[in-house]
Amino acid sequence: MSQRLAEKEALSSLESLAPELIDLILCEVTSISDLANFILSSRTIYTRFELRKQIILLRVLQNELGPVFVDARFLYRFPCAKIVDENGRRDKYCAYLETMGNVYHNLVTRHARGDDEPLDMDELNQLCRMQHSVSKFAEKYLWFMLDQLFGRQVSEEDQRKHTVSDKEAATFQDAFSIITAPASRSERLRIIRAIYRRQIICHAWAPFERRKLDVWTFQEVAALAEPVLGSQIPNPRQSGFETSSRKGKSLLAQFEPWEMEQVVHIDNFITELCITLTEVAELEEAARTGAVIQPMLQRIRKPKQQPQYEARLAAFADIFLNITNLVHYMDTHQDIMDVAISALLGQELPNWPLLGMRKSRIRDMYATELELRPLFAPFQVDRMILDPARDRLERERSPLEFVGDDGDNSLKHPPFGWIDALGGRYLNWWGNAFDMVLWSPRPPDRLEEYDLAEQESHIKNVELFVNYGFVFWDQPRVEALKRLEKCKDLQRGWMNKLEYGATVYHH
User: Is the pTM of this model over 0.70?
Assistant: First the structure.
């Protein structure tokens, strides 16, 4: 009761302020959701908001997003691409990607100069709606990672260490508290930027339409990932090369490798979440209707199965490729969400004996059909020949320095987790391209045995690196995570002994 009275007194004091001061306070709010709650708390505050709505919304969005504001603005201007035109050609698609790459570059340049283009109310409203969805998903991701996944891991480790020695357990208490501490602004912004950029790549790659196309072309790779004017790209119709006519930076070329790796981490989480949500929903539907669980439709489908499969794929794409739809689904299917989270955490679910049995088939039928190929190795192989500058940095093992986790400024630089894993070495790969490895050195008398053991260990470490989101966290959390028994192999430079070969994969 006393707290409620104190809140009323504080609100009354706020309403008594000069209108100009209320305006200043509104412009200092740091999130759209907080602004919504604030303006609904008082008629006086709401009136001031309505009088200067456009300025206040812009300021609050900038406060909340910082450098990610550019990505949010670009997504608003970047509707999903159409790959093939009415004549079955992809020329317009490539031109569209080139144009939008330049649009993004111009937005970044103007934002760096403090010269952002003015926004109208329609754009501001759309940006607020999208940010509401992105922020909500980021909160769910952080809750899952910090409270659930890390919290359970820390609890298990704490119990184990107490069993061994109370003294040993005491030395880990500080590290354990850091692992599950609330996210910093820099950590939150890295996650939010990765969510926006995954959505941007969804629009650029258009997976639902692309699933019917056999391959991508080098022209598409150039339009999406070529960094500079005049790069030489292979001509598929002739021997030799042709010179690109691009006039500016393409879209993905403006994202650094560690920024793409951050997108990979979010994509991995969304993929696993959507697969599990789909499986739980289908099992729940079968239990409710009494239907017999049938094996998933095979890739080679009979004509009569095609409509059923296309409907299922479209439903999966609806949440897999649209973050707003995914958040809405999670909010309106809380029972399914609760079971899915428990499954993702590896908990035993006695009431769901079939859960997990069809996961690999759902992945093959839905997620693999719609995967974002620029995040995967084959696309990166084609991209490499268009990126001589970064390729040279990699060959020369150019050093990367960690500049700190200073809020917004830290997003301009590689995160500690990336630098630490590579021992400060530049690397122009991300995602499952980390598995493109030539192992060195090799004991000549145990070549096959050594390669297999090293490869299994490396794949396990990469999986852990991605699943634990190492490229999102500030230095203290990364250092604390490395003290967990599960992460003991992820010490500084654990990738450094690897040599990457670009001929292992090809589409």
Answer: yes
